[in-house]
Specification:
By secondary structure, this protein is α/β, with parallel strands linked by helices. It folds into three domains: about 90 residues, Periplasmic binding protein-like II (D-Maltodextrin-Binding Protein, domain 2, 3-Layer(aba) Sandwich); about 80 residues, D-Maltodextrin-Binding Protein, domain 2 (3-Layer(aba) Sandwich), CATH 3.40.190.10; about 80 residues, ACT domain (Alpha-Beta Plaits), CATH 3.30.70.260. The protein contains nine helices and 15 strands. Strands 1, 2, 3, 4, 5 and 11 form a six-stranded mixed β-sheet that branches. A five-stranded mixed β-sheet has the order 8-7-9-6-10. Strands 13-14-12-15 form a four-stranded antiparallel β-sheet, with helices on both faces. Helix 1 links the parallel strand 1 and strand 2. The longest helix has 11 residues. It starts with a strand and ends in a 5-residue tail after the last strand.
Length: about 280
């Protein structure tokens, strides 16, 4: 029986690549969602869907802040992570050359990650779209000559487009971190876990966040990410998202209990196996 996996984006996008890599031993049915909010609603309400794959950060563009809010508000559980190398490719309808291209279409993040390459062709206009793979799809469906897309190799193969240039990203070490998600309340898969993602809030007293960091340090936990984002409707109030690496589960369990004493609110978003980049 196929596992139904939600992705944000269109078929051929990087979310699909991440899902197929993470669930490589599973027979998959990929379910596209046009936005992260649509993905969240489907995962929460559609019981026929098993998991979702959601980008959370890029090492060049930074964190996708809205997705931390989605994780907390929808109470999804992180069951794993994957770091996907992002390689951007310039593609178009067959039989064209760079001299034929007047516009390049892609998601703004992809365009920004390829500016060094695109600066060599100042005559080519950059046009933002809502998805890399959608840009490739539209070239094929609308038979758009003179238009190129920046997207994945999978998109070029899926939509039968020629590659004009491969790996045009400015940084060769461009990767995106994705979370594999499930609805809250489902049985958590068994395994040897060494990483956790949590969120918490503290009061406004001096040193409140410092006390949180001291608990983590004193209990042999490695803090690998600390992200803040505002509490909606409140001034100077923030949620803190943390990634915790640990070698011994007992250290993690003790840390969580101690953190409850120095926070106003604490929620574990997931305990899972760290992905080796």
């Amino acid at each position: 029986m196929k596992q139904r996996i939600l992705i944000q984006g269109f078929l051929g996008c990087f979310h699909q690549e991440a899902a197929e890599k993470y669930f490589s031993d599973t027979d998959l049915q990929i379910i596209p969602a046009e936005s992260f909010l649509q993905l969240a609603d489907e995962l929460k309400n559609n019981l026929d869907v098993d998991f979702a794959m959601m980008a959370i950060e890029n090492n060049i563009a930074g964190s996708i802040v809205q997705n931390y809010k989605i994780l907390r508000e929808y109470r999804f559980r992180i069951i794993g992570e994957i770091y996907l190398p992002i390689h951007h490719n310039l593609m178009c309808l067959p039989g064209q050359a760079m001299s034929n291209i007047s516009e390049v279409h892609s998601h703004p993040m992809a365009l920004n990650q390829c500016l060094a390459f695109l600066s060599k062709y100042p005559q080519i206009k950059m046009v933002e779209s809502k998805d890399t793979a959608l840009s490739a799809l539209q070239i094929r469906e609308k038979n758009l000559k003179g238009i190129a897309a920046i997207a994945s190799l999978s998109a070029s193969e899926l939509y039968n487009l020629d590659i004009l240039e491969r790996n045009i990203e400015t940084s060769p070490n461009n990767y995106t971190r994705f979370f594999a998600l499930q609805r809250d309340g489902l049985e958590i898969p068994e395994g040897k876990f060494n990483k956790a993602s949590i969120y918490l809030t503290t009061d406004h007293a001096k040193g409140s966040l410092l006390r949180v960091l001291e608990v983590i340090y004193d209990n042999n936990i490695n803090l690998t990410k600390l992200q803040s984002y505002p509490v909606e409707g409140q001034r100077d109030a923030y949620y803190f998202y943390l990634d915790l690496d640990f070698k011994k589960p007992i250290d993690y369990e003790r840390t969580i209990e101690l953190l409850k004493g120095v926070t106003l609110e604490l929620e574990v978003l997931g305990v899972y196996s760290k992905y080796a980049v």
